[in-house]
Amino acid sequence: MNEVHTHELLTDDTGTVTVETEETITNDAPVRQESQKTFSDYGVAPAIAQSLADAGILNPFPIQSMTLGVALGGHDIIGQAKTGTGKTLGFGIPALQRAIPADHPDYAKLPAPGAPQALVVVPTRELAVQVSKDLQTASKRTTLRVEVIYGGRAYEPQIEALKRGVEVVVGTPGRLIDLHRQRHLNLKNVRMIVLDEADEMLDLGFLPDVETLMAAVPAVRQTLLFSATMPGPVVAMARRYMTQPTHIRASDPNDDSITKKDIRQVIYRAHQLDKDEVVARILQAEGRGRTIIFTKTKRTAAKLSEELIDRGFAAAALHGDLGQGAREQALRAFRHGKVDVLVATDVAARGIDVEDVTHVINFQCPEDEKAYLHRVGRTGRAGNKGTAVTFVDWEDVPRWTLINKALGLDVPEPVETYSSSPHLYADLDIPAGTKGRLPRNKRVLEGLAGEVVEDLGEPGKKPRRSSEGRGRGERRGESAGQHGSRRSPEGRGDAGHSTARRAQESTADDGAAIADAEVTEGAGKSGHGHGRADRQAHAEPSGEGRRRRRRPATEEASEAASTADSTEEPSRPARTRRKPADTSAERSAESTEQQGRRRPTSAAMAVNLADGGDGAPLDRGVAAARRRRSRTRRRDGEVVSRTEAE
């Protein structure tokens, strides 16, 4: 029976009373019992009602029947009901029905045709995906476009979808604000905004972001707020942004507990080292379907899933360290039945709505009663039965005492339980003789590998460069193409070639100054013979060996000038070296032996040829003198040959 009150006090969970002029509707019928009326009886458009009928949804739940008439009339609503009672279609159908499709004559009259007309804000990515799928199911026979926007995916596909046009957007606060600030999400058309799971958004710290979005949409709008509980900040936000809201409470007179009575709740005090074995035996209980196991840490979730896979179960992990693609892969595999055990953390599993979840296992004790309600609410949804098993460690007994008192569960002292305890088998219908490993003849599911990972283009993650068919040398060649290689001329990049060109131009413009400096450096090291540069050039073939690092031209020129100054005086003509008669044959033999052992540098021969010589390497003093004369005292037509110098 429904009761309608024209004036009701809006009370939050702490007992604070706020005087509000509102209409409150309460329902004494069981919240999970379907109404005998169809959606069409509540004014739902035929196309939407037929879309729901195609999916096997014929009759609304009480929370839906109570919401549809008020929401379709354009009134603000505060909906309060336990999780799993069907709130999504309660606000989703009005959002779809009030939107104007692109083929409607009034579409062009909108302030910004193509911009979203309804905005649904949810706290988590997984819930956003679930809500968008429900709305797409309800709009299948219409031309309405529903788009889901959340973080962890690439921006570009979402921006392109907004450019093409969309009527309903479902998203998380962070990504919605980002796209709005980037001017990709236009909120001028928004006629309805829905805040789903408002209490969870408060717990996650999203209320400031929600208020930012509320301030960005037009002032004349319809606002729908749904929450399982009504904390003080949620009530304050409702007062600030809603106009005479209708407060709808769906309650079951036969269920006075905070949790749903269709969920069988079992609490055990388990030993840390025996938990894995206990879980493995619970997973072999009679009638066990899809199961969600909750942990407090990401490391525990990953470790437990690996342990269960090793024991033969089709399990997958869901936690914050996974990329969005891997998280969606795990959820798809769980929904499609390729894995039947999902090990998840609290934050990652918020808002997961999967049908036929028969068991929930709290592998670690929840932090508080809110976390407990969230966890056990994943089973027993939409009128189904469920089982919730909670493990309480020795150190968590005080925490459990507070949870038990807050929720009135009447289990103050959990029973000490081991994997061999007889009451474990009796409580959960575990066949006698069950061990901790799944028999091979029952391992029939594909597992996580049966679901393909979708490439979502996650921001901040660069695709791994393929190294197939490429060795270490090719990678060095690629890097050399950017920075210049010392290994081979083929691997040298633009920087290497430009350096060689600059060296050649500098040599030509400066009268072979750099080449002369190399000769001077080599002569200074070996006396009369060729320098170290000549020996390196002879020992390492050109273009094959390691290229000697060249010093700046200014440094080499200054060294050449200082060498020339120490060899001769500026005011005197070049002095020639006289060879003693008794040692000429010995020097000639030594010179011949050195020339045969190492060839002269092209720079030394270039200097000699420029002065009219025969291309043979010059003595240090002669080379310095001719360079000095070439740079400071060159006269027109003056050429000093090798014979004249000697």
Features:
18 strands, disordered C terminus, nine-stranded mixed β-sheet, alpha/beta, Rossmann fold, 646 residues, single chain, 4 domains, 13% strand
Can you give a write-up of this model?
With 646 residues, the chain is α/β, with parallel strands linked by helices. The protein folds into four domains: 2-250, 3-Layer(aba) Sandwich (Rossmann fold); 263-450, Rossmann fold (3-Layer(aba) Sandwich); 475-509, no CATH class; 511-645, no CATH class. The protein is 39% helix and 13% strand. The protein contains 24 helices and 18 strands. A nine-stranded mixed sheet has the order 1-4-11-5-10-9-6-8-7, sandwiched between helices. It has a seven-stranded parallel sheet with strand order 14-15-13-16-17-12-18, sandwiched between helices. A two-stranded antiparallel sheet has the order 2-3. A hairpin with a 5-residue loop joins β2 (8-11) and β3 (17-20). α20 packs across α23 (620-632). The model is unreliable at 1-22, 28-33, 462-574 and 636-646 (pLDDT under 50).
Outline:
It contains 24 helices and 18 strands. With 646 residues, the chain is of the alpha/beta class. Helix 2 packs parallel to helix 3 and helix 6 crosses helix 8.
- The tally of strands reads 18
CATH architecture of the largest domain: 3-Layer(aba) Sandwich
CATH superfamily of the largest domain: P-loop containing nucleotide triphosphate hydrolases
Largest sheet: 9 strands, mixed
**Mean pLDDT, nearest integer?**
75
Domain Helicase ATP-binding: 68-248
EC number: 3.6.4.13
Motif (Q motif): 37-65
Protein name: RNA helicase
